[in-house]
User: Fold these one by one.
Assistant:
Number 1:
Amino acid sequence: MLMFLGTKNALGIDIGSSYIKSVLLKEAKGSYELEQFDLHSLSPELIVDGSIIDSLRLIDSLKEMIKKSRTSTKNAVISISGHSSVIIKKITLPEMSEEELSESIKFEAEQYVPFDIDDVSLDFQILGPKEDPGQMDVILVAVKKDVINEYLTVVKEAGLNPIIVDIDSFALENMYGINYEIEPDKNIVLLNIGASAINMSILKNGVSVFTRDSSLGSNIHTESLQREFNLSYENAERLKRGEPVENVTQENAQTVIEAASEEILTEIVRSLDYYRSTTLQEEISEIILSGGCALLPNFVSLVAERAGIETKIAEPFKNIKKSRQIDSVYLEEIAPMMAVAVGLAMRKQGDR
Ligand SMILES: Nc1ncnc2c1ncn2[C@@H]1O[C@H](COP(=O)(O)OP(=O)(O)OP(=O)(O)O)[C@@H](O)[C@H]1O
Ligand SMILES: [Mg+2]
């Protein structure tokens, strides 16, 4: 969506605040094959609140990742998330054609977007007619132009050719679409928890009916560990990955991590309650958990327990063939972090 700036087969690049993730897929006879993937850690001060603070170092990291990669593909699909720069809203409008809405979207969107309408890039998707005759549901998307431009500039400076700028939660929906059977009338929650953001998206019949981004993430685990044990950022990150750190046992680390999880769990439960309250208490069948936070031992069961909903760790490569050169042991370990990148890698020029 939003922008089409080049041609053909592309690298999906998820630029998160703590890791850049890239995925390259090959499509043949309606199925996907994984050609390559990569994960590259970033210093935590390069991207803050979804905004690029140190573009030079981010460009260097991207260049390094490209250099390592075995592909000559320069076309890239990137994404943006974050409640401070992206607005996604389901709105009801009088029935009209796609062309008509293209003409009037700016006018229609104005009352729903808390920024100057000229400062955002707008897009929409018509969800089909409502029960009320003459009305239709539309997903409205508004992204701050300056944020899109920050990301585009960085990606171009790194030598890539960005062809689409997507939204994290839409990428997750695409990832879900290829890997999971759509269960009629069930509400499925896609929950992506990274270092500094939560993207929640609720799907019904495979279509998004609710999205919410919040600026909480697994950084709160890192910060708690740093505070509690007086550690550097790097050592706290090591502890999260289960690696040994001097003078701190995994058991003590786990206690601190679980206490810090409370804030995230409360936020999740609050969002689910909000969804239920706006939909006459619809039942939610399942939560699919992705993002680095899903790798914390026990986190998935904490979510299941607190939400009271069956929760599974996302398998973004479930239905994707792996080419021979893929390190499938490593892939398995980090798979939940790659969910957004997989969704991005599925996008093709000309998609909406
Ligand atoms: N093996 C692991 N065990 C536990 N936590 C991990 C592991 N690997 C990464 N993490 C944590 O996951 C987070 C990174 O996840 P992810 O890559 O999904 O975030 P991001 O996309 O960079 O961030 P965001 O989208 O929030 O800006 C970090 O907080 C990191 O500490
Ligand atoms: Mg992320």
Number 2:
Amino acid sequence: MKSERLKITENRQITADIYKMCLLGAEKPLPGNFLELTIPGCFLGRPFGVAGYADGITEIYYRVVGEGTMKMTGMKEGEEVDALTGLGNSFDTNGVKKPLIVSGGLGFAPLKFLAESFVEKGITPLFVAGFKSRSDIVEFLKESGFSPVITTDDGTAGFHGSAVDYIKEKVPEFDRYYACGPMPMLKGMAAAFKGGQLSLEARMGCGFGACMGCSIMTTAGAKRVCKEGPVFSSEEVIFGD
Ligand SMILES: Cc1cc2nc3c(=O)[nH]c(=O)nc-3n(C[C@H](O)[C@H](O)[C@H](O)COP(=O)(O)OP(=O)(O)OC[C@H]3O[C@@H](n4cnc5c(N)ncnc54)[C@H](O)[C@@H]3O)c2cc1C
Ligand code: FES
């Protein structure tokens, strides 16, 4: 973890409620890491998964859901923001030759960074990205530079159904899968397939392991999403109802 002051180089709306922000000055993160931005006027930092990194610039995508993210939409290019960077653990990619990457909604963001790291190693992952509807995806994917297999809940683009439905139907070959998205989706993947790495979200307090506010239950007891996670093995997470 590092405390850094980052300069906003881009902050742009790309769909009705999703924005892309680029921040200059952080050390190179690992795929799976997240950062916490200090938003003026907000007591707690706001965590975001790293979606990309190049030339000292960290890329995040954020959905406007409340006070902090609404304030972020008004931040301007050139403005500086305090951040805790290099938070959390990272995806384990050692020895993986046939990765399957599965996202739901904005879970796409941290997995994009992971997919890029595989491509850098000469490995093309199978990337299945699930969205609610076509309107969610068109601009977002244009921005991302990736062309994953698309699924939509309402059938307006790609496969009609969830990303998990697609994988259950097509049963692609993989030696490890990586998933990020809403809890029901992660639960569905973990129930259907072993050998996965799941990137979880939780309401956070401190963001660096001090308050226990982000704990989840695992087969080895309570673990903190911000410290032992956000990446957990699909076998260790105990999902609620
Ligand atoms: C490790 C991690 C990575 C994340 N990565 C991203 C990302 O890449 N892009 C992105 O848009 N968001 C991401 N989030 C969620 C993001 O942190 C929250 O949406 C944000 O903090 C909300 O701030 P706010 O002040 O706008 O909303 P608030 O006013 O704090 O809350 C508004 C609403 O959002 C809900 N909410 C807030 N935080 C969370 C959360 N952590 N999980 C579930 N619901 C929440 C609240 O319950 C409330 O209903 C991530 C969260 C974690 C823990
Ligand atoms: S948010 Fe404080 S321990 Fe995780």
